[in-house]
Amino acid sequence: MFKHYFERIAEQIAIYPIISLVIFVVFFVGLTWWVITADKNYIAHQSQLPLDLNDESNGATNL
After folding, report:
1. How far is 26 from 23, CA to CA, in rounded Å?
2. Which residues cross the membrane (predicted)?
3. Range of the domain at 27
4. Is residue 23 part of a domain?
């Protein structure tokens, strides 16, 4: 009785690993493309934000 349902489920879930792989590949290809084409000044500015405690433009106060 349940064998029929389990066979149908097995056929229907075969697409999920393929969808997961496609999402994984698209995400990391997109992320790699963004890293390669990102503005170097933007990245340098973002990397210095946690260290710029004396810069008043970011609203940080010197503790």
Report:
1. 5
2. 13-36
3. 15-51
4. yes
